[in-house]
Write the structure tokens for this entry.
Amino acid sequence: MTGGEAGGTPQAGPGVAAALAALRGLADPKRAAEMAAYHKTDRPFLGVGVPQIEALARDWRASCTLEQRVVLAAGLWDRDIHEARVAAAKLLTQARIRPDDAAVWALIAGWVEGFDSWALADHASAAGSRRLLADPKRLDQVEAWTRHPNLWTRRAALVMTLPWARLPHPKPAQTAVRERVLSWAVAYAEDQEWFIQKAVGWWLRDLSRHDPGRVRQWLAAHGDRLKPFARREAARHLRD
């Protein structure tokens, strides 16, 4: 299926200008000021909530071909407005993209080195994680991000691989991916950035719900290199 999520042939979707107009039609200046203060970036905010953006993105996905979606997402991201970037990520957040998701992955991966805040990085990483699950060979590219000078790029490598931590019954190949990411976490344990430490704790915490023994093992070997808050996060669901 190359177009929207429903069956049938989608009509032409909105252009970037029309999509931005729809977002601006939902703008809330008071909320925008609060969001700007919270996120502490100079990027413009409209004050539109994520559920409202998701509703727009669902309609746009249904009315676009895959090619149109990629063009629209790229255009929205390039506008450098917070809600427009969230909408770009939501346009591409889909488990199955047929017949070929290469253009979607290329667009998301192209954003990663420019991440500059946790919120936008996490929205885009949610889209990226679907593309990694669809083609785990892309982890070779993700591994290079673990050594990137941008902390948000390094962090994205862990956030995008969270689905493997959350698998209740992983197959051998999936367990191998887990071990690969845990090896990245060993290097990350030396990283003093708060958001990196938080991401390591988050990954281990989620894994502990399904493989507490492996998390205990990792913490016994490497936990003393984590900051105390990250160790506590990793062990939150572990019983003594």
Remarks:
- Residues 1-10 have pLDDT under 50 and may be disordered.
- The radius of gyration is 19 Å.
- DSSP finds 14 helices and no strands in the chain.
